[in-house]
Amino acid sequence: MNILSICLVALGLVFLSQSLKPAIKICKQVHSLGWQLLLLLIVFFFIGYCSFLYYLTTITTVSIVEICLSTILFGGSIFVFMVIEFSLNSIEELHIIAQKERYNALHDSLTGLPNRLHFMETVTTKVVAAAPFSVFVLDLNDFKQINDVVGHYYGDQLLIKLSKRLSRALPEGCFFSRVGGDEFVLLFNAIELSEISDLMAIIDKTLVKPFNINSYNFNVRISTGISLFPYHSSTIAPLLQKADTAMYESKKQQVSYRLYNDTLDDDAKARLAISSKLHLALAKNQFQLYYQPLVKLQSTKVHHFEALLRWPQTDGSFIPPDQFIPLAEQNGTIRQITLWVLDTITQDLVDFAAQDVDACIHINLSALDLQDDYFSTRLSALVREGLLSPVQLVLEVTETAIMTDITKTRDILSKLSRLGFRISLDDFGTGFSSMSILRELPINQIKIDRSFVMAMHNGNTNNAIVRSIIFLAKNLGCSVVAEGVETKAIAAELTLLRCDYLQGYYYSKPLPLASLLPYCEQQGWKVALQ
Ligand code: C2E
Ligand code: CA
Ligand code: CA
């Protein structure tokens, strides 16, 4: 019986000693007083078991009480061992779950890159550490169009592949994160211009090869804006905002990156000033409409004119439409501006008619004009009231405007086409999806973008592009306009290519209504209905 009691207590000691290691592990992971007391208790038990074991070895016979006590001590030690083991397993599982949750909270689920929260934590740490670094804001060009044209699956795959390729290419010490749909932020531990341009060269090189997704090839371009800590700001929000301003500038100038400087802020302020003056300009009727003739070949008649907005200033200068239209699109005033243009054209048509001219006016529409019904409703009303006939107006729309919301645009343009209005696809060749638009929308005319026309020379690529667009338009039953005709040689070349209409400074600059018809007559053009 002695041997049995000694074995039970000795085994109990083994279990207790096996509990010590996990108990210490728990105490290290969970800094709570309860677990430390439990560890202390196990140590006391251990000493108690040792003392009892020693006692058992010193006596010759054991009583029934001592046998029972040995059994209880054995059972107790198994209990302690199991409780500690299970607790350790549960704590470790919880720890893994918590780690996973923290990882998910800090990473983007699509690309696996650090997300905005992670970026904010990292940049905050860097600002506190106060060592110089640079912030790169990277934004994909035309990403929305990729999503719209080929679908979100391809958009997502492209983001995943791009993130992987860039992450692999970036050198050590770069923190690369995805902070929005197609917006990435990179933190770089250097502010030397040479190092920044080296890094940009790496990024540009990574994008040279197209991204292949299910046998589609995507060429991606990224616009990048850069700000420097602490030179441009020593706090996070202005640093980001300045990198953002520089990114928009790089997008506008179509260069791969721009480093922030104060003049960019001046530009942003000037844009804000223009933007806030737009409402007033409308209220004070400050806009004017100029008209540029579209000269029809194989005929001496000119009756198509493109209406182009002018915004004269008190000092005699003009704010160019390229500058204020994008701002009007941003702040929504473009809606009222388009309605003002439409009303002015309607009034001017009365003037044309008074001079026996059956003019057909081309009006430029923006994306917003095609996304809700105010424009088409006003147009229908004008037709209903007999103030405008659909043959008197051609609607010029760009691919970019159409692609902003292709479904809505298709509805509105189809409705207007059924009413008898003709639709002209402006700036053709500069967008992303010319072919699908031609297939899906009721397009009557194609206007070749002036960048191709102005750079046409015998045998060069632009010449081939213009030639192909004219061929395409003819086969689709569309008329074709070449805009930006500046020289006699290009006009002659386009005449040979049998382009239907020519528009450009070679024939006439945009003119105010008062000088338009005298100018046309002076050129010997007859102005009459086709
Ligand atoms: P756009 O629709 O492509 O208009 C043609 C632009 O090319 C006009 O610039 C015109 O003056 C210019 N242009 C015409 N012939 C030549 C040429 O031979 N050489 C060169 N270099 N340029 C030529 P503008 O009037 O400055 O208008 C710029 C843009 O502003 C227009 O481009 C159009 O997108 C926008 N815009 C103008 N008026 C309106 C408007 O009433 N509504 C809207 N939504 N946009 C307008
Ligand atoms: Ca136009
Ligand atoms: Ca154009």
Topology:
Elements: H1 2-29, H2 33-58, H3 64-106, H4 116-129, E1 133-140, H5 143-150, H6 152-169, E2 174-178, E3 183-188, H7 193-206, E4 211-213, E5 216-218, E6 222-229, H8 236-253, E7 257-259, H9 262-283, E8 288-296, E9 304-312, E10 318-319, H10 321-331, H11 334-354, E11 360-364, H12 374-384, E12 393-398, H13 399-404, H14 406-419, E13 422-428, H15 434-440, E14 445-448, H16 450-454, H17 461-476, E15 479-483, H18 488-496, E16 501-503, E17 511-512, H19 513-522
Parallel strand pairs: 6-7, 9-11, 11-12, 12-13, 13-14, 14-15, 15-16
Antiparallel strand pairs: 1-3, 1-6, 2-3, 4-5, 8-9, 8-16, 8-17, 9-10
Helix pairs in contact: 1-2, 1-3, 5-6, 9-10, 11-12
Bound molecules: ligand C2E and calcium ion (CA) (2 copies).
Residues 292, 307-309, 320-322, 325, 341, 364-366, 426-427, 450, 483-486, 503-505, 510 line the site of ligand C2E.
Overall description:
The protein is α/β, with parallel strands linked by helices and 530 residues long. The chain folds into three domains: 2-106; 116-260, Alpha-Beta Plaits (2-Layer Sandwich); 268-529, TIM Barrel, CATH 3.20.20.450. The chain is built from 19 helices and 17 strands. It has helices at 2-29, 33-58, 64-106, 116-129, 143-150, 152-169, 193-206, 236-253, 262-283, 321-331, 334-354, 374-384, 399-404, 406-419, 434-440, 450-454, 461-476, 488-496, 513-522; strands at residues 133-140, 174-178, 183-188, 211-213, 216-218, 222-229, 257-259, 288-296, 304-312, 318-319, 360-364, 393-398, 422-428, 445-448, 479-483, 501-503, 511-512. The strands form three sheets. It has an eight-stranded mixed beta barrel, surrounded by four helices. α1 packs parallel to α3, α5 packs across α6 (152-169) and α11 runs parallel beside α12. It binds ligand C2E and calcium ion (2 copies). One calcium ion is lined by residues 306, 364, 396, 426.
